[in-house]
Amino acid sequence: MSKVCDDFGCELAEFNGEEDHVHLLVRFPATVQLSKLVNSLKGVSSRILRRDHMKHLRRYLWGGHLWSRSYYVGTVGGPTIEKVEEFIRGQQRPE
């Protein structure tokens, strides 16, 4: 995830998740097309995870896909960046 963010000129500030989803806090310039960043994050991570952990991942696939088509992107404006980082760090790490 960090390498993909670097390739887009972004910074992966926090990364964590739960059994069925992940949370990423990414600092990005206004020139980044978020849909392209998300598609790259999903595509690259899917290829690497399938290559290295396919036996374990089989039970998590969505009709053969690791990630669903949907995603949520929100901007931080209300809570401080520290509160968002704290929330992400507090999530259960995927096995």
From TrEMBL:
Species of origin: Garicola koreensis
Residues of the Transposase IS200-like domain: 1-91
Domain of life of the native organism: Bacteria
Family annotation (SUPFAM superfamilies): Transposase IS200-like
Protein name: Putative transposase
GO molecular function, one term: DNA binding
One of the protein's GO biological processes: DNA transposition
Taxonomic path: Bacteria, Bacillati, Actinomycetota, Actinomycetes, Micrococcales
UniProt xrefs under Pfam families: Y1_Tnp
